[in-house]
Amino acid sequence: MSDLFSKVTECVDAIAERTHGFAPKVAVILGSGLGEFADSFEEKQVIPYFELPHFPSSSVQGHAGRLVLGKIEGQKVAAMQGRVHFYEGYAPWQVAFPTRVLCAMKINALVVTNAAGGINLSFKVGDLMTITDHLNLTGWNPLVGSNDERFGPRFPDLSRIYDPALQKLLGACAAQDGVTLRQGVYVGLSGPSYETPAEIRMLRQMGADAVGMSTVPEVITAAHMGVKVAGISCITNLAAGIGDAPLSHAEVSETADKVKPVFGRLLRRFLPKVAV
Ligand code: HPA
Question: Pocket of ligand 1, candidates 87, 135, 189, 236: which has the most ligand atoms within 8 Å of its Cβ, to mutate?
């Protein structure tokens, strides 16, 4: 079996061949219900994940995910419509694999987005939050195992993992649309069950503002490869125990659907600025 570095290289080469050397300057991973954004790219090239070597794709779900390459305001961007999660049964290296591929394409920055439950009591359903930092409570780390120095160091620094300049730029872009971005700490758990109210109280005391089941492994992987990160959470629901209603994926999807236009406008402003 070839090593991970060779697998990543093989996938990057396959994308380059398929797209005639298209080289995105920024990449975005689109979270639950937010994938549609990439449909508006200009000069779009779409590659289903299952056509890419070693790329994890779920054959169970109706649509297994697609890599979309194209332009916004003339700037080259890449987007992942759909991601895989640890709770689906993928190995850590597989969850991290798409991020490795994107980062190996020499992008300026990786933008991660997700649907998240609001833990901070001042958050409202439908808010967008700039991720300022995270808590990794997934119980695992994508870098466990032997380290390949060609990717990065054994012990990567995470102290400024969410790039402060990109956070500022995100805020400025939102302000142009009159949108107030919340700021906060994202806590990543493995899922797939939602949290208990007791867990949410604990997470709030630990300093978390929003909770989800993705993003953290991708961000750690990008940090390993020295790629800057910006993160946006869409607060799709109040976390367990805050409201009266039980949590459901239907509510998450419904909110994401409503927030889509605002979210799309924000990314449309932000991504070209990061690409230059
Ligand atoms: N908890 C965990 N993951 C989530 C939530 C939540 O409340 N909402 C959306 N993803």
Answer: 236
Is the bond into 153 cis (omega within 30 degrees of 0)? no
CB atoms under 10 Å from CB of 229, counted, come to: 25
Rounded CA separation 47/158 (Å): 32
CATH of the domain at 43: 3.40.50.1580
Question: Is the pTM above the cut of 0.85?
Answer: yes
Residue nearest to atom 10 of ligand 1 (CA): 116
For ligand 1, say whether the CB of 237 is within 6 Å of any of its atoms.
yes
Confidence bin at 62 (pLDDT 50/70/90): very low
Residue 110 Cβ inside 6 Å of ligand 1? The answer reads: no
**Mutational test site, ligand 1, from 124, 215, 233, 237, max ligand atoms within 8 Å of CB:** 237
Q: Name residue, tokens 């798409």.
A: 98
Q: How many domains does the chain have?
A: 1
pLDDT of 63: 54
What digits encode the pLDDT tens for the residues 167-188? 999 999 999 989 989 999 999 9
Distance CA 41, CA 67 (A): 12
Domain span at residue 24 reads 4-275
Q: What is the CA radius of gyration of the chain?
A: 18
